[in-house]
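Teaching soon. Got one?

===
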Amino acid sequence: MSFNAIFSLFLILTQLATSSSLTITDNLPTPYEVLAGYNFPIGVLPKGATGYELDKTTGKFRVYLNGSCSFSLEGSYQLKYKSTVSGYISENKLTDLSGVSVKVLFFWLNIVEVVRKGDELEFSVGLASADFPIDNFYECPQCGCGLNCNNVELVTKLRSNPLVSSF
């Protein structure tokens, strides 16, 4: 192999090693730490994230969970996460989400956007949205049992604004 070929191969491998795709290792931030870096509480993701990819220039991300996940919160809301959740992240905003849905009456609706507004998070399913206090999301829910695992109830109760706003 010529010197130019070896040098070109080295440059290509260096580019791959410094790409912005990240997976969980000892020296990289976890998906939960990345969320906190964009001013989101860690509880918008359930426990069990195994890795992620983030393009810091565009905000495009993918989070990988340990399989699909579903749970109820306070018996009122049923949530489902696919094994991959993706979208765009910026300060106080998650947009173009896919992989997260909520059951409303008898229908599953995709949560497409989450916006932090002060001490509240606004979850949008497109034409309708609902606001929840941010302190509901300081703990990560667990697949299967949410925040009430092992029949131990957490001090924080899920509180919501009973009014659902429409756009």
About this structure: The helical segments are 3-17, 31-37. Residues 21 and 53 are 4 Å apart (CA to CA). The chain is about 15% helix and 40% strand.
